[in-house]
Structure formats: C-alpha cells, structure tokens
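Aim 2, interim progress: modelling of the uridine-5'-diphosphate-bound target.
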Amino acid sequence: MRLLITGGAGFLGSHLCEFFLARGHSVVAMDNLITGRVENMERLFGEDRFTFIKQDVTQFIHVPGPLDAVLHFASPASPEDYAQFPIPTLKVGALGTHKALGLAKDKKAVFMLASTSEVYGDPLISPQRESYWGNVNPIGPRGVYDEAKRFAEAMTMAYHRAHGMPVRIVRIFNTYGPRMRKNDGRAVPNFITQALAGKSLTVYGKGSQTRSLCHVSDLVRGIDALLRSNVQTPVNIGNPSELTILGLAETIKRLSGSRSRIVFKPLPVDDPKVRRPDISLARSALRWRPRVDLEKGLLSTIEHFRRG
Ligand code: UDP
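Predicted structure of the complex, ligand included:
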C-alpha cells in the first residue's frame, strides 16, 4: 500500500508512519509542524519508501502518484494546544477533513479519520459506547476540538453516503507513550516531567476525574485492524481500565522513584468527569484488545522521558 498520513510528524502520526513502513508499505507524511516535530520522523528519513511534505492540510493538497489510503491525523490534540491554536484546530477538523476526503476520493483511496473520545464531551453515561451522542459544550474552550471532530465525522459519513467512499472512523481515547511532547500540557507528560525534575505534580481539581489510558503500540495495532476491516462506522479504540487522575499522579510518582509532592490546581473548564471506552465493537469486529499493562507502559515511557 501507499498511504498518506496527515499529521505524520505528530505523536500518533509518527508512530503510524513507523508501523506501516516496518510492514513494507510506502508512506507520505504531511504536516505543517505547528505541533508536530521533525525530530519525531528522524529515524524515517533514511527510508526510501518515506516522503515528508511540509504543508497545511487546510490548503489545496496535491500528492503525486497513487494512494491506497488517506489517514487524516492532523490536529492539535492536547487541551493546551487547542486552547493555544483554536482557529487552526477548527480549520483542520473542518477544512482539512474536506481536503483530505477530496484527495481520497480522487485517488480512490480508503479514508480514515482520527476522531476522539472528546466527541462524547463530559459524558453522562459510562463506559461510552459508539451509539452515545455525547454531551459537548459547543462554545466552551474545548468546543473548538470537540466540534471540529464531530463535524469531521459528519463530513466523513456524508462522503461515504454521497459518494460510496470507503471510510473508517477511529474514536481515540487517551493515549500515551514515547514522543509525547514534554510541554503538551497533558497529564502523562506533565506528571512524568514534574516527577523526574523533582517538581510538584500538578493535579487539577480534586483529581477524582477519571481517564483510561492506552499505550500507543496498542492504539496503532487497533488502527491497523480497523483500516483492514470493513467497518464504516465509528469504532472506539482505547484501554477500558479506568483510573483517577490523582491515582495516575501517585502511580507515576512511585514508578519514577520521585520524592515530589502532589499539589492541587484549579480544574479546567468543561474537564470531563469520567472517560472510559466500551470496546465491545473493536473486540468483536476487529478482534482487537489492548495488551500493554498500564504500569509497564508507564515505566517504559518514563525511561524514554529520562533519556530525553
Ligand atoms: N490534568 C492534571 N494535571 C495536569 C494535566 C492534566 O490533573 O498537569 C488532568 C486534566 O484536568 C484532566 C486529566 O488530567 O482531568 C487528563 O488531562 P489530559 O490533558 O491528559 O487529557 P484530556 O483527557 O483532558 O483530554
């Protein structure tokens, strides 16, 4: 296969590039580098099946040659990033999805959208199933990401219905692993960076809000399984083992052997109180389930951060 991965210089995008190259495919990565980083791709540049195009996907996209799949993963993805880039976040979800769909249609390629558990907003049911419509504040600070992704899903399904295009929508739950940016503001990189520097771990609110963390290697396997499936509706990919944010801070502090304190800071606006994927669909339709145990995954991520 020859794949285009938008956001290929980002945390997930670069892991996807590496995964598909390792399986013998050709990969074109596209990124405007506002939150992606060239360093994430440094091991890929020597590979002749790898091409990088520095471009904003909201502009007209031209990729010479055939494409079998277009994976649209470009977007600021952490709450601090999309608060800093609210308009680019809306544009890449809306205009960028439109351009990427148009390109996939032209190339007769399968289109995959990176969607998110944020489409469920601050969910009123838990765990979240794909059939749940969500509880999103459209005008709050997170709305720029949540609504862009909801629009992107609607656009993807419209192309599927109107043009009979093959589509895949992956709803990605919190993912962690090597190559997260130290300063992207998310809980895992913040806590690890703070613990390793002997600084206080900043828990927002009381830390009773929950998340369910999936290792990036599990996510990538799930994305591959979805791409190769024939499922044309959204599929949750995440690890259902749920923990509180205070529990996560304590675990990271212990695993990194840190003597840091834990301090409490104000809870950001619209911060979801619970989040846990129902992965019955992925289990049955894709025969996928996560394998990496949280403590083992966190330990290896801490080692990556320690090495810099
Ligand atoms: N969080 C925290 N301290 C931090 C960073 C994040 O307590 O230094 C909390 C945040 O308020 C949220 C949870 O950790 O409840 C997960 O935040 P993250 O930004 O990782 O992802 P989200 O799931 O909110 O998109």
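The chain has a mean pLDDT of 98. Residues 78-79, 174, 186-187, 190, 202-204, 209, 211, 245, 268, 271 surround uridine-5'-diphosphate (CB under 6 Å).
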